[in-house]
């Protein structure tokens, strides 16, 4: 089988503070886009909410204060340089940002092609955290307050280079995310994330944050015979530490390259897209082996129930 190569890069970001302007953040992204290009990469994954600090950690009531973190157009005047650079360099990218569309707030990512045009848009579906402020808690996780559930499903886009899909942060923990894209023969899943490591909202040792992050990516890649390119925003943001561990995972489930730092850092890997075919022809030949007639509960039931019908 002949190899089909795709040179992917992941651009992890160090912290973005509230005082950092969009211009300053875009300049950092541009520098990493150029670095990726200088290494030969043709697609780059940037993090979730890459243009701002991870603002759902704060409880805010003033709509003007909240909307300052959102984009009303993409590209806008401040993000246009990214699109111009994509076209000039011939490098496509995934970018996560907060989107205000017709008065509705979404946690969104776009896929921008190597010609600088928007290929597709995804709006985060698995929104974690709370809708209401937890009184007495110093650090909140209010994504349900600030974002509606995405309304675009999990599409896969056939670009000239590869079939690419997107998801955002918490989505990566859910097998359904990858399987819906796997059923569209996705070859590369791009995912941006912001995963706090400095507090817990449930009883879990902090070291498990990195373990579960990698476990989820590796399982998703293997079980769906695809590559996964995951970019985090890491380091200490406004006093709140977040995990790094940005990486590129192969269809074997192996992490092929991973960031060293918790700062701005580009990693890259020449991915053999044909590696998927071995799995798709054998152990994960969906057409031969899947039994959807036995999977109905996955879509008909939302929460788990005990066998006797109890909660
Ligand atoms: N941004 C995001 O989705 N973060 C979640 C944090 C969960 S802790 C409330 C994640 O899954 O990493």
TrEMBL record:
PROSITE patterns: CN_HYDROLASE (PS50263). GO terms for molecular function: N-carbamoyl-D-amino acid hydrolase activity. Its EC number is 3.5.-.-, 3.5.1.77. It is an enzyme of class 3 (hydrolase). Residues 6-275 form the CN hydrolase domain. Keywords: Hydrolase. Pfam families: CN_hydrolase. It comes from the Bacteria. This is Carbon-nitrogen hydrolase. The lineage of its organism: Bacteria, Pseudomonadati, Pseudomonadota, Betaproteobacteria, Burkholderiales.
